[in-house]
């Protein structure tokens, strides 16, 4: 530290030496308030820096909520019948009749004919409204939301969900039936009793599950009297996703799953799962022949899949009606179906 004399000597000659740590003048050192002059009391509110939203990111990749799959058209197939002006439909059925007689050169005995029936069904149409306001749409746009497109997506979804439900269960109180409750369907048969007790596949061995499917096939052959069906026939095996995984059970000898055994025995059989086969009465399974003599055994019938009305402008909003309609599922050959309940 320089002495005062040396400092004064340097300053007289234009040399300013950096001050020492002690800078307060004599007499001020006894007043401690002087050291707080550089830290006055805040007049604004204390904060943590920047507004929090400036550090927020909106991920542009959206996650859409999942809904149960709609499988009715995949199970039974789908056909358009009529349009939204069609209220009822008559499905024709013809049966050949006739008799023979002993031959005689001058005899005129024996005759043939045809017997006709028309099975009626009634269509059922539904609608939903898409509505959106000018300010509402622009406010959602601030969050990078394509609001109108999402509403259109929702309208198509709710209409398809209802159509799928109608295809499985029909409409109560009118001649519009589904693939699971058509009154012409045969009464469900029961699965075999398993060695572990009960009839469910949860306690069944692989061979016991296979035997249940074999029982369904044997019943199908018996109903059709062997007509146009063998192990190479195109078949559909439909069940719920709850029991479909049990087709992966293996035997202790071959380690081959039930599914492999099924596909080996019936190479043209397809397996489809749909949530609707889990019923209040238990797990339901359907085995049916896809078509006989080129005629489909069943199909879902619709009038309109989606009919969009005009976009109607209001003072500061828009609305649009969307409709769909159908006949449920048309079971053309009930005897080509076998149902099993209680797996």
Description:
This protein has 343 residues and is an alpha+beta fold. The chain folds into two domains: 4-36, no CATH class; 72-94 and 115-341, phage-related protein like domain (phage-related protein like fold), CATH 3.90.1690.10. Helices cover 21% and strands 27% of the residues. The protein has six helices and 14 strands. Strands 1, 4, 11, 12 and 13 form a five-stranded mixed β-sheet that branches. α6 links the parallel β5 and β6. It is elongated and about 160 Å long. The N and C termini lie far apart (99 Å). The relative contact order is 0.17. The mean pLDDT is 90.
Which descriptor suits the 3D outline? elongated
Give the terminus-to-terminus CA distance. Answer: 99 Å
Q: Counting H and I runs of at least 4 residues, what is the number of helices? A: 6
User: What is the class of the largest domain in the CATH system?
Assistant: Alpha Beta
CATH second-level architecture of the largest domain: Alpha-Beta Complex
